[in-house]
Every structure is written in C-alpha cells, then in structure tokens.
Amino acid sequence: AQKITQTQPGMFVQEKEAVTLDCTYDTSDPSYGLFWYKQPSSGEMIFLIYQGSYDQQNATEGRYSLNFQKARKSANLVISASQLGDSAMYFCAMREGEDSSYKLIFGSGTRLLVRP
Amino acid sequence: SQTIHQWPATLVQPVGSPLSLECTVEGTSNPNLYWYRQAAGRGLQLLFYSVGIGQISSEVPQNLSASRPQDRQFLLSSKKLLLSDSGFYHCAWSAGKLNTEAFFGQGTRLTVV
Description:
The complex is a heterodimer of chains A (116) and B (113).
Chain A: E1 4-5, E2 10-14, E3 19-21, E4 24-25, E5 32-39, E6 46-52, E7 60-61, E8 64-69, E9 74-79, E10 88-96, E11 105-106, E12 110-115
Parallel strand pairs in A: 2-12
Antiparallel strand pairs in A: 1-4, 3-9, 5-6, 5-10, 7-8, 8-9, 10-11, 10-12
Chain B: E1 3-7, E2 10-13, E3 19-26, E4 32-38, E5 44-52, E6 55-58, E7 65-70, E8 73-78, E9 87-94, E10 103-104, E11 108-112
Parallel strand pairs in B: 2-11
Antiparallel strand pairs in B: 1-3, 3-8, 4-5, 4-9, 5-6, 7-8, 9-10, 9-11
C-alpha cells in the first residue's frame, strides 16, 4: 500500500493567487513527521516545511502553510500569493518514528505551474 | 554549517560500464545517509541507507551497491550498468531524529545509453 499519496499530477495557478497541493498518508505509527519539498528544474530537493504528528498547530513558513488534518490523514501544502518562481515539482514525504533508519518516504509529486 | 556534496552532476555511460557516484557531508558527525533514485517524472525511491560506517541497508533489489568507508562519505556503484539504471540520483543526510529534515545534494543525472 502507498504510504504517501499525491493525487494531483499537475496543477495550474494564477500568479498572486493561493494554491493547495494535496497529500494523504498511511501509517499505524502514532509518532511520525510530514515534510514538503520543492524540486525546481535543476533537480535539487529543497525543504519547505515540517509538521509533527503531535503538533497541535498547523506549521507555517513564510508563504507556505500546512493544512494538517490528522483524522483524515492529510497534510496539504498551501502556497499563498504564488510567484512565478514557485513553478516546480512538489513532494510530500513522511518519516515514521518507529523506523530507526529515519528514512523519508516520498509521494509521486505534483507539478505546479504558475501562470503570469 | 552543514553541507553536502555530490558528484558528478551529469553522467552518460554505456550499458555494461561501471558506475561510481560519491557523496560527502561536511559540518556534522555520524549522519544518517541515503541514496534515492528518481525516474523521469516520478517520485523518489529509496535505494540504500546507512546509520554508521560500514552499515548499509538495501531497500530494493537491484544492480547497484553502496558503501560507507568513512563517517561522512557515501558511495554508490555498479559493476555493469543497465538501461533501467538511468535516472536522477539523490544523496541525502539527516540527523537521527524524527523531526529534522533531510538535506539533499545537487543530484546526479545518469543516462545509460
């Protein structure tokens, strides 16, 4: 079974508007972390935001916020005031606390295109 | 500050040739190290991880091998490349904690021809 599911292969957004990228996850571990990464055309993975399973509030980092709905097992990324430079691939990832390797498990990604 | 170096950035290799990719981390000790592969337009698949010198765990059976000869050095190699080995290879490190992000190198784009 997929541990991380991103159902939107591609998304468009108008510049200066907000966009939500979906991510659902599957784990039985009560302790886990959720991450979002951005991958521009250069290929490098850039960390954006983190949400812990025990965090009471949704994480925010500048224009990025994470809409964490624990009961639904979703961790959607919200980008406010989109900029042309936001065009990239976006990946949701999870790390499970009982996994001593602390590896990140990635979803298949969403390609975001910001229109001027 | 911590940095991660991965090279080469781009590689074109014929089928059946050997492969050697190198990744080094600076500014931290005893990092967890990871090799991921990303097929074109796809997500990242974990190939190997290491929690210490000489300790390698493989996530998927494949034509590749990994080694960690030093604390901050992680190598990926193959004796004979296959066409299916083409892809974007990422090296990453993280502290052994739940709530810390993984830091990625610039990646290596491998094309097997």
